[in-house]
Every structure is written in structure tokens, then in C-alpha cells.
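Assemble and predict.
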Amino acid sequence: MIGRLFRAHGEFCASHPWEVIVALLTITACMLTVDKNNTLDASSGLGAATASAAAAGGSGASGAAIPPASVGGSATSSRHRPCHGWSQSCDGLEAEYNAADVILMTIVRCTAVLYCYYQFCSLHRLGSKYVLGIAGLFTVFSSFIFTTAIIKFLGSDISELKDALFFLLLVIDLSNSGRLAQLALSGSNQAEVTQNIARGLELLGPAISLDTIVEVLLVGVGTLSGVQRLEVLCMFAVLSVLVNYVVFMTFYPACLSLIFDLSRSGVDMSVVREKAKGSLLLKSLTEEEQKANPVLQRVKLIMTTGLMAVHIYSRVAFSGSDYDSVDKTLSPTLSLNVSNNRTESGEITDIIIKWLTMSADHIVISIVLIALVVKFICFDNRDPLPDQLRQSGPVAIAAKASQTTPIEEEQDTQKRQPEISAVPAVVRAPLFTIEEQSSANVSTQTELLPLRHRLVGPIRPPRPLQECLDILNSTEDGSGPASLSDEEIVSIIQAGGTHCPLYKIESVLDDPERGVRIRRQIISGRAKMQVGRLDGLPYEHLDYRRVLNACCENILGYVPIPVGYAGPLLLDGETFYVPMATTEGALVASTNRGCKALSVRGVRSVVEDVGMTRAPCVRFPSVARAAEAKSWIESDENYQLVKTEFDSTSRFGRLKDCHIAMDGPQLYIRFVAITGDAMGMNMVSKGAEMALRRIKRQFPDMQIISLSGNFCCDKKPAAINWIKGRGKRVVTECTISAATLRSVLKTDAKTLVECNKLKNMGGSAMAGSIGGNNAHAANMVTAVFLATGQDPAQNVTSSNCSTAMECWAENSEDLYMTCTMPSLEVGTVGGGTGLPGQSACLEMLGVRGAHATRPGDNAKKLAQIVCATVMAGELSLMAALVNSDLVKSHMRHNRSSVAVSSANNPLNVTVSSCSTIS
Ligand SMILES: CC(C)(COP(=O)([O-])OP(=O)([O-])OC[C@H]1O[C@@H](n2cnc3c(N)ncnc32)[C@H](O)[C@@H]1OP(=O)([O-])[O-])[C@@H](O)C(=O)NCCC(=O)NCCSC(=O)C[C@@](C)(O)CC(=O)[O-]
Ligand SMILES: NC(=O)C1=CN([C@@H]2O[C@H](COP(=O)(O)OP(=O)(O)OC[C@H]3O[C@@H](n4cnc5c(N)ncnc54)[C@H](OP(=O)(O)O)[C@@H]3O)[C@@H](O)[C@H]2O)C=CC1
């Protein structure tokens, strides 16, 4: 209920920022410009005191003494009406500074500075130091200005604020401003910002209100101390707390909202708001009100009650004629203090009395300081807001329920133990973002990543390096790397040598995930990365057995790429749903549309296993000797000798051909081999090496320049692959009826044929392209390659494609289309095809692993699917181009305002939106 009130209030402030800000500024301006003498004269009883205060203020500043009677009087009256203290402040403060004063104020100032430092450290831990730092500074500044205005209004001398400022710094809690700013600015549009601010106040408001009450009552105790200067300072502090509270609840959220409002570009907010309603973040924000730690809340409530009792009792006890006697009881030395402060007596007794009287001052200030310290330690230790939200969100709850086993919980608890970090970068909680919320329900580790990043291990000081090395190399039970803490392992790695090179951690530790975690920490430190830089790069839940010694070295993690599907695709009578991994919005949609058009009549294909190639470069002493070697290899009999050697290296690799090019005394021997279901580069390289040995036996003067002489030609554009082929050669064909062209692609055959001729043929010829007579074959090739674990770099040669179109049927209104791809380098065995995700995608196509009976058939089938998918993408894009739909569709699917703004703009300001374009 209370939370909802705060929420409504926050919503109001955020949605009416101008009104709130102008209202507050107007009130402040009124206070600053009001004629305080008139006002105070008119007010009850304050006039006299103010007059004296003003006078004293003036004198006080110069250090003039005030008659004891007047001071005393003031003090007395101040206890009857606390606000009186404002006008009396100068009286109190003008008292001459003695050694104790100097020490005391120094401590207060130091504490304030340290506290500020602590606050900024906390803000840094929360996330962006710039945004949050500015938020914190803004709160301090605005609170100070408002407090000044009120103090001036109450008739005090502003010159005395130098002491009060430190109290102001001590009572302001910047972390809440940081939290609210972080939450507000994580919104991607005005509606989200408003909702985030409302949600933030709903969450923070009740706790902050209670904190404020406790602080006011606690610090208010100082106003009962009987020590006049302390009373005045405490009144400043109380006022600061109250003003800071009001600023935080009104001015601050309004300003946050305004920042966003002013910096966005004219977007249609009704549309954006509609979109925002569905966002995951908002869903999590509308969940049940977050409760602060109930134990702490109860303690605070009890404290509040107790302090109220103290205040009521004290003020009743001090009222009326009783006051003087009570005052004497509580502070018997006060009058002495006042008079003694103003004597220049050097007598020991006077000094003792002065110190004794000041000790009351010290004691109460110490109580206030201790109370503040207790507040930091006990009450400010609440979970960061992002954690609270994460815990509360329905998505997170579901994710937690499904993911967190008791064992995991236990591990997490262990990992929450204080870290023993030997490296400088300690990963902190990441910025709270929509993306983080959105990803909470997928089974990646990102949600708990920051905690798991930390170095873990038994809490004990690291053992000496030699001892750690002995344990590392020991084979005894209870020894070995598992018994070393992360910090000890880091020290071994940092020491260098061969014991545990950074790139071998996984195998040395025999625990890949732990190894990767430690490497991330070390690299973060060595690369002097900002805290949390690697948080977005997952590394857990990866089957490292399938990665190590197969796919990657020096692993830091893995990059998740979205996988979509295009289909159904009717190919040679079979239906396929083709997985595509891409970050190019609109690509899958386009291919999907193409599949729809093609599948009405279905695609037919032919495939040929051209063979994988490897062409070493060898050199002979003379051209004649090179020519002799060439003819030796090309003779049938010798070719068989070489083939036997080649084939001996694999159960599936079989030498198919040998093309030799001569360039001076150099030979480029292009071995062509079928490689079963593997793409075959390793296999053919292995075979080529063995074949070269045989040739060298025959020609000992042959010099092997390089196993790869670029005549192969792998991963580089080359005409030879276009002409002779490489891997699999596939040709697909299809006819698309005029009706389908109209209904699905919104075009006709004639227009497409014309465009294909001028763009894919004419345009590519003008560009001097080889193998590029297509619109975007590389798009589909790469997306399917990534999804199915192919070598991504082989998209270069594999994307060779000629797309042809003709008008078809009697009336020439249908379309006949072919795609010819002579060099598709694909495999269903080896490389990345064995990784779990990639393997699942191959499974989806029914081509995972080796073909059970006919080795090579799975790879060929995959090549056919790739070519048919390319055809679908080609058809759809060509239709989009003739319809001038390209830019429109990409603005809709390929440019998210959230992604663009969060990448380029720390304030998440929307820099573009499809709603303005489409
Ligand atoms: C593999 C190496 C580096 C071994 O090289 P090496 O000299 O045997 O290794 P080493 O054990 O003596 O270590 C030397 C250094 O290599 C690094 N190193 C060594 N091992 C690791 C590891 N596991 N993880 C990370 N770093 C490693 C490391 O820096 C190490 O120094 P250290 O730190 O020990 O003082 C070397 O043989 C090599 O560079 N091979 C070439 C592999 C390659 O480039 N493959 C690319 C694919 S080929 C292709 O796709 C295209 C192609 C070929 O067809 C194109 C064409 O036609 O030309
Ligand atoms: N070395 C190089 O120059 C290059 C390497 N690459 C990389 O090479 C890797 C791919 O090499 P590739 O040779 O395809 O794969 P692999 O190196 O993984 O070799 C395939 C393995 O699978 C076995 N196998 C089992 N069943 C079959 C089957 N039905 N058909 C074929 N092989 C089968 C083979 O047996 P057997 O041992 O009997 O042959 C062989 O051991 C990729 O990671 C790629 O990135 C890429 C470009 C160049």
C-alpha cells in the first residue's frame, strides 16, 4: 500500500517534471528573496533573537565576544523552541575556537570526506562512475542549495554553513541517488523512464522514509545536548536530512525524467509507450512490492519509537520553569562553559573545566558519528536494487526455480565469500540493463555471472610459491591443483616458467571452466580492463571437452549468436527447417519469405563431390627438373604411387585428382581428394604432406616451399575454385508461378529477370567480380555455416554463386530460377560440427555426424540445403529490391532503438526509431 503511494508519487514527478521543478524552484526563490527581518519580526518571538543573532553574526564573524547573559539566554530559549536555534546559531558558533574545537571539527571534516569517498566507491561498484557520480554530485549540490535557502529563510547567518556543510555531507546517502539514476536511465524511452522512476521510488521510498525519520530523531538528540554549537549543527543536520529527503523524492526524479525527455529526438511517444508496456523490464517492475530486510526494518521501527520517547520526554522535561533545573542536572557545566569560554584565564582549573565542559560536546558528537558509522555498516548494506528487481521479476523467479539446484546454491554461497584477489580487477555487479533482465530466463550464466567471476577458494593467506608448486605437481591424495586456491594458481601463473603457462591452465588444472575463469581474471588485470568489462561474455555451461584441442585456444568465453530458422523449405521432396545464426535483422525473415515462395512447387538439386584441395608449392633447381617432376607425377603409374601414400593417411580421404601448374622452376601441385562427411582440410593437408614425401624420395633436390601454395585456394577469392570447383558443387532449380510471385513477393517474373540481368550479371561484370553473380549468397552461407559449425572463414569460397532467372511457361509469366554454387566447403564431421549447439542444428536438418552407410552423403545433403537456402534468400532480396523495400525492411528488423542507443549513448537516448521511418 505504502509502496503504491510512493509509486504514484514517483509517476507524478517523472511525468510532470517541469511542474515539479518549477514549483520547487519558485518556493526556493521566495525563501531566498523574502525580507527576513520583517518576517522574523512579525513572527512570534523570533524577532529579538534574530536581531541579536544578526548582530552577533556580524560580530561573530570577527570574533567579537558576546555577553554571557545573552548567550545563556539564547541557549535557554533555544531549547523551548528548536527553530529558535537558527537565529541563535551565530551566538553559538561565534564562541572562540579552542584546541578541542579544532580537533573535533577536523574529525568531523575528515569523516565527511572519507564518507564521500566511500559513497563514490559504492556508486562505482553499482556501475557507471560517470552517470552515477554526476547523479550523486547533483543531489549534494541541490540539497545544499535548498538547505541554504531554508536556512536563510529562517534567518540564520549563511557564513556559518562551513561547519554545517560537513554534516550535510555526512547525512546524505548518495547510493540511493545512484540507484535511482541507474534504474531511470536504463529505460529506452520516456515511458520506460517514467515507469522505472516510479518503480524505483516504490522500492526505495518506504525504506528511505524510515531512514529519514530515524536519522532526524537520532541527530535530533544532539539538539537536546545543551551544548549550544552542537545544537545548532545538529539542527543544520536535521534540516539537511529533511531537505535531502524532499529533494530526493521530488526534485531529483523530476530532473532525471527531464534529462531523458530533453535528450530524446522527437519520437511519437504514444507508439513508444505502447511498445514499452510489453517490455520485460516493465513486467518485472510491476511485480509485487519489494520488501526491505524485515529485521532491519523492525530494528529501525524500535529505534524510532525509542527516540521519539526520548524527544518527547526531553522536550516536556525541558519546558517551562523546569527547564533550568533540568538543564543544570543534565549539563551542570554549561554555564561555566559559556563563561569560561570567554575568559582568558590561564589557570589550570579553568582549563580543566573548559576541557570537561567540551567533553560533553565531544561525547554527543561522537554518539552521532558512531550512529552514522553503525548506519553505514548495518543499514546501508542492503542488496543493490538490480538484485532486488532480479529476485522479484517473474522471469527471474522462473529462471531461478528451473536453474538453481541446492548444490548450485551452495556453490554460489561459497562463491559469495570474500574474495582473495591477486589481480587488480575485481568484477563488480554489472550495470542494470534491460538486456540483463531480458536474458534472465535463458539458461545462460549471465544472471549470476558477476559472482561467479570472482576468484574463489579457501579463505586463507596464499602459501609460498614453492609450496604451491609442490602441491601442484604432487600426485598424492588431497594434493594437486584442486587443493590450491585460485589466488595460489594465479601466483604460479604470474611467476612464469613452464609450470602452468596461461594458455595451458585448463589442462594443468584438469578443470576447464575454472581455468577459463582464472584466465579471464588475469587477462582483465593485464589488459587493465575496467571492472566488469568481461561480464557480458559468457563462459559457463560450455562443454569444454568438445572445444579443447579441437576448436579454440586461450579461451575467454563464447559469443552467443541468435539462431533463427527459415522454412519449411521443400527440397527434392523433403521438407527442411533451416537454422541460421546471424545478427543481421531481416535476413532470416527474407529467407523465410523465399522459402515460402520456393516451396509451393519445391526446389530440385544436383550435387557433385568435387573434392577438397591442397596445393603445396615446391621448387626445383631448374625449369627442366621441374618439368621432369611434373610429367613423373602425371603419369598414371606414378600417380597411383602418390595416391597410395596419400590415401594411407585416412579411412575416408581419397585422392581424386592432381592438377599441376608450373611457374618457372616452381610447381603448384593441387591435390584433390574426397573426404567423406568431413569438410576435409585437415585430412587433405595430412594426405598432401605424405604424398610430397613420396615425390621427394623420387626428386631429392625438390625443395618444399610451403604445404599450401595458394593454388588450393583456401579462404581467399580465386578463379580456380569458381572454375574447377572445391568441396561440393551444387546446382538448384525451381519454377515459381506468377500467382506466387504476386502474392508472396509482390512482383512479377519480367521485373525480376530484368533486375537479375542488370544487377547480378551486368553489375557484377562491371565490378570485375569472379563468382559474385548473385545478390547476397554470402549472407545465407555464413548464417548456415555459423549455425552448423562450419569453418566461418570458408564463406569466402563457399559463397561463389551464379543466380540466374528466366521468364517461364507459355505466357512467360512464371519464373525459372537456378543457383549454381561450385565450391561449397561443408562437412558434418570434424571442426565445430561436434559442438553441442551446432550439432543440434545439424540434427535439425537430419545430417549430424557421419552418414551411417554412405560416407559423404550427409555433407552432400548439407551442401544442397545450403544452396537451396541461398536460392530462397536470393529470390526474396531481389523482390525487395525491385519493390524498393530494402531500406524499409531493414529499418524495421535491423535497427533496434534499444541496441543502437545503448551502444552509442550512455544515457540510452533514442537516436533513431523505426516508428519515425516506417
Ligand atoms: C600451433 C603453433 C602456434 C605451435 O607453435 P610451436 O612453436 O610449436 O609452439 P610452442 O609450444 O613452441 O610455443 C611457442 C609459442 O606459441 C604459443 N602457443 C603455443 N601453443 C599454444 C596454445 N595451445 N595456446 C596458445 N598459445 C600457444 C605461445 O605463445 C608459445 O610461447 P610460450 O608462451 O610457450 O613461450 C604453430 O604450429 C602454428 O602457428 N601453426 C599454424 C596454425 C594455423 O595458423 N592455423 C590456421 C588454419 S590454416 C587455414 O585455415 C588456412 C590455410 C592454411 O588453408 C590457408 C592457406 O592455404 O595457406
Ligand atoms: N589444416 C588446414 O590447413 C586447415 C584446417 N582447417 C580446419 O580443419 C578442420 C576440419 O578438418 P577436417 O579434415 O574436415 O576434419 P577433421 O580434422 O576433424 O577430420 C575428420 C575426422 O573424422 C574422421 N571421420 C569419421 N567418420 C568420418 C566420415 N564419415 N567422413 C570423414 N571423416 C570421418 C576422420 O577419420 P580419419 O582419421 O580416418 O580421416 C578424421 O579423423 C576445421 O576445424 C577447419 O577449421 C581449415 C582450413 C585449413
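The chain has 42 helices and ten strands.
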